[in-house]
């Protein structure tokens, strides 16, 4: 065995040379050690607090957004619900989360640029379109143990951290005007006519209808309905929400919050047979730059602009001089000269070509693909096929407008000439504002009767183009629309988190 013998005197001289080495090493590494401790303890604690606040913000935003129904009452309910739900969560492991109304904002899209403070929403008009809720929950100061910096040379020190929880929840409102029209054929979503043309729930694309003169269905009048834009079964119905005054702002923008994914005859809405010649007429006619003034105005041009083309498309109204020959010209004996088709007992009853109405002002008839009752839309017909589609003496339309866009063109798509008119004020307008996405209901079940909370079975959503301004004060009332097909699939309006 080897033995290491070091003289005592030599060992004594070596030891002083090691004195203070550990202290120097500790002094050099203590700041690094405190940095790691700050990361592990202080930032770790802040991360836990951030997670707690984020969970509370998510829950509060989702719960509050469900209450947003585009009314002032809905906004107030959303705030109360969000605050209550936030308080059910804990921060710092045991303290209830505190949320104030000043930390809540609403808007019509998830972006911060769309949001306004809760205090800015003071009326139903200002609440319209506000379907997103933003919740921000600040943590306040989180005292630190190691992540502290002293104040140096006038610079503030750091003795606490701050974090927050932020969530935005809501839904995009459906582009569905809260007006219901009766299906003319409730059994066939897509029917193949002898000419090969597609008919959807009894409506033919490119054909004009006055939805106030559809005749009788199931032996009872088939008047259109005002749809409650806020409430939908199985939720309770507030009858005031489907009144003309409360529905008019939704008609202005062509939006509602009740129709989601549709199961025919299962999905239902609340309807009201009462119409007002005032607010609803002005709301519809905002698309033609007709707003009224003072207290009579129900639409705001900045929120409900006119269409970019406000030219009316009509026949038989003495306007032939402003129309090109051979298209809807009442002076031409080969084209229709009565504005709309009249429907009786669910079938088209036309005695001559003159009763077809202003054909193809927005869209064209389409060929059916598949078979009845679920045929779908195929290619467009051409004006040369009018004699086949409308076989009561209507000749091929040789001078049909819209040729610049080929088979997709129509008088409405013209950007100059007799078929185009830009709004003289509030321009340049918005294309397709005259297209109303209306709820098609099964009036064979719901026809007749009255009331503001009638449950109406929904079949689908149809696109209807306003050909002329509405006139709801005459007898009969007039809302001439051209059918432009079904909207499929119906956009969902599920409430979800966006941030």
From TrEMBL:
Keyword hit for Transmembrane: yes
Transmembrane segments: 21-41
Biased composition range(s): Polar residues: 407-424
Residues covered by region (Disordered): 404-426
Stored InterPro entries: Tad_N
Annotated Pfam families: Tad (PF13400)
Entry keyword set: Membrane, Transmembrane, Transmembrane helix
All residue ranges annotated as the Putative Flp pilus-assembly TadG-like N-terminal domain in the record: 20-66
Stated name of the protein: Putative Flp pilus-assembly TadG-like N-terminal domain-containing protein
